[in-house]
Design brief:
The complex is a heterodimer of chains A (491) and B (425). By secondary structure, chain A is of the alpha+beta class. In chain A, 33% of the residues lie in helices and 18% in strands. Chain A folds into three domains: 32-116, Uridine Diphospho-n-acetylenolpyruvylglucosamine Reductase, domain 2, CATH 3.30.43.10; 123-231, Uridine Diphospho-n-acetylenolpyruvylglucosamine Reductase, domain 3, CATH 3.30.465.10; 238-426, Vanillyl-alcohol Oxidase, Chain A, domain 3 (3-Layer(aba) Sandwich), CATH 3.40.462.40. Chain A contains 15 helices and 19 strands. With 425 residues, chain B is α/β, with parallel strands linked by helices. Chain B has four domains: 7-104, Orthogonal Bundle (Fumarate Reductase Iron-sulfur Protein, Chain B, domain 2); 109-155, no CATH class; 169-295, Glutathione S-transferase Yfyf (Class Pi), Chain A, domain 2, CATH 1.20.1050; 304-421, Rossmann fold. Helix content of chain B is 52%, strand content 8%. Chain B has helices at 12-23, 35-40, 47-59, 64-72, 79-83, 90-101, 109-121, 125-138, 147-155, 187-191, 194-205, 221-225, 229-242, 256-263, 265-268, 275-284, 288-297, 319-325, 329-336, 359-362, 364-380, 391-403, 413-421; strands at residues 169-170, 178-183, 208-211, 250-253, 285-287, 311-315, 341-345, 385-388, 410-412. In chain B, the strands form two sheets. A five-stranded mixed β-sheet of chain B has the order 1-3-2-4-5. A four-stranded parallel β-sheet of chain B has the order 7-6-8-9, sandwiched between helices. In chain B, β8, α22 and β9 form a beta-alpha-beta unit. Classes of the chains: A alpha+beta (491), B alpha/beta (425).
Chain lengths: 491, 425
Amino acid sequence: MSLFNRRKPEKLGLSTNSSVSKPRSTDAPHGPLAAELTRLLGPQKVLSAPAERLNYGYDAILVGKTPLCVVLAESTQDVVTAVKSAKAAGVPIVGRGAASGLSGGAAPLQESLVISFTRMTRLDIFAERREARAQAGVITLAVSEAARPHSLVYPPDPASFRTSTIGGNLGENAGGPMCFKYGVSGDYVRGLQFVDVDGDVHELTRDAYDLAGLLIGSEGTLGFITEATLRLVAPPRFTRTLMSHFAEVGQAAEAVSQAIAAGAVPAKLEFMDRACTNAVEDYLGIGLPREAEAVLLVDTDGEDLATVEEELALVEAACLAHGGTVRRAEGELESAALWRARRSISPALGRIRPQRMNEDIVVPRSALPEVVREIRALGEASGFHLVQFGHIGDGNLHPNILFDPRKESSEKVHELAYQVALVALRHGGVLSGEHGIGAMKRPFMRDAVDPVTLGALWAVKRALDPQERLNPGKVLPGDTDLPHGSAHASS
Amino acid sequence: MNHDIPVDQLGPQGEIMAHAIDACVHCGFCLPACPTYTLLGDEMDSPRGRIFLMKEVLEGELPLMDAAPHLDRCLGCMGCVTACPSGVPYGELITSFRGWSEPQRQRTPFDKAKRTAILKALPAPKLFSVAARVGQYAKPLAPLLPDALKSPLDLLPEHVPAMVNLPRFTPAQGTKRARVAFLVGCAQQALAPNFNAATLRVLARNGVEVVIPEGQGCCGAAALHTGAREEALKLARANLAAFNPDQYDAVLSNAAGCGAGLKEYPEVLHGLPDEAAAKALAAKVMDISTFLARLSEDGGLEPFMPASRPLSIAYHDACHLAHAQGIRAEPRALLKMIPGVSVLEVPQGDLCCGSAGTYNLEQPALAAELGERKARNVLSVQPDMVASGNIGCHTQIQSHLRRQDSGVPIHHTIEILDLAYRGLL
């Protein structure tokens, strides 16, 4: 194995708030809204030329509609100005962070104003309160990088955390490997600043009615999170990493169930199948077991080394009992390389087929062996590349159907995706663990949520956004939505 | 990424471009790895955005001139290639696109003159040297000049050294271990002739016989990356004729950009009759650091004299070593072989210094911001010395260290090895 030769991942230039003078569009503003916004905000914050707007129609899974106009907000006040102008013009608004999301949440479905938060990158660390105050455009990993000198970290770690923004993470309530033990993004929010549909600014805490909680995961359909107060924690003193591989996917799932039943609480417990392992190995070449049908990656961590080792031993025993081959990472470098591999899976799948339909199901852990086997069987019967990976520790799986839209039928892909969703629901699971519903899984909502609850969700939406101007066509299914299979990724 | 590009109408370069666009899953992992995105915070100035723009232009949906400002801001640093899990060959895409689109560009007469001047002077070390000398005397006038002329002057060293005539043949000292051909580079002959002199000394000392084949010239990377494809083809063919790979164990370069340039020949000549020759040459091309690291593994290097005092050296990853060629460990390992030397990592080390070939002549504002940031990051680890493996980075970082009133010297990795051999470190 060449894992030892990997260098430590280096820090990136995690800010986009350089003082360098921003180039301005040489064209005159296209359209009345752009003209008004340019007048109010100046030409360097408003994009309306086609070559500029074009780039704000997609996220990491979907290519939506090119927006009418884009505001590159640099402050909450800019957001207020943009929201009020759009309201006056009767134009829908879509918020956008790094657009690394996987449900189409940031991709406009109709002609809209896009508010991009990538220039709102102010970040303050208050070490004595163990808090960070971050503007929406702060890159996720930047919070931990800034907190680390104070011996603090921000645990939520979506795979895209070198790219994704805090605003986007909260909008989708993003998870990540650490979430099994430490909770998802929303669990770290102490307070939010948000701009509502009228352009009013609110400061929310978690007291009384937890309105901050309502905003978290609302995908920009209720308002725009502009700043957040985030809880920081002391990083664990000890971390140990283990990789185990198996000849069959169900064995890996059984090992997971047994390890957790035996009392292990790993910090991270991740699963990838053979296709995923090979795609990542093609990218990184670190010596992953290409022949294995399933790989588990496990971290245990804590303050007490004996406990950390004991938990790792429980996981190891469970893996061995189910036919796994176990390898412990020898040191931080090898561990970092393995986790980088895990984070790379989703985009690396592009090596197999150019397009994919991805899912984000969560099932009870006890059902995992059956679920992964059933999904695998569905894939084999369909003739598509259906691969699986995910945060298996908390039952959150990402089955992905990989296809080439020029050669394979999108309708069949959606039918298969629906079958996969039904497997999850049949075993008592839910559709979205961490990616959000967005546009991609919206049509499945009728299967997942009962009509009474959907009615309540709609009532909330109408209270905060009566005219459906905020990220229209996302999360909640409309009256005309078919039970399933009508949304088509056009990436 | 789905596309509707009329591949057959674009020739062999069309296949290269369409393949790269196919491979992009628009995940956005490249954004923070892109220097212009970190400066500007907008999607059009990110790799993902540029891929989308190129797709639209190739599909005929977007006028080239609309996309051009954003594509021109790309440094070609390949930081995104390292960050890309789905394996998009972005470098091949932007290079092919620039070659394809250049004939359609409408440039102002001043722009045209500047491009011509750069592309003529760079590959001609003697001309470059004369220009550099003239520039040296013009330095005091810099504040009076427009930015386009100021930036090249800023990069010139205080003292432009005399050019060194290099021997066509340097015999191995002691037992001969290998025979290599050496590409001497262009600008570095004028600006830093000691790079090549040091290279010859270190190689000879380690039993390597060095040939500097006649007829070699500029690798053509600067022409290729600015869209001057015909010029690049001409230069590539001259080097194919000069370097016969069968005669050498390796073809060496000590400039990251030139080494990467030679390795690009198979893409440049894709679909043309000399593609096979290009592949044969590219297979033999090696950076000096890789070659020495292999020599070290395969029988060891001559021992270095210890540094006269403990030395902390900040190693700067040249983009065309780290991102374009995947060479990171080798130069660090070589430096660490010198007793008394420790190697420091530069924060944000993956981000380009802003030199990027002719970039600081074409985009002086962005280049200066990146140079300033790089120098700040280098100084933050308080090094005694800086090492890098590329002439462009060398002049850029030197210039920005000086602007921050730092006296920290910068050397090519090979110069440091050479100093250690001579007991001068």
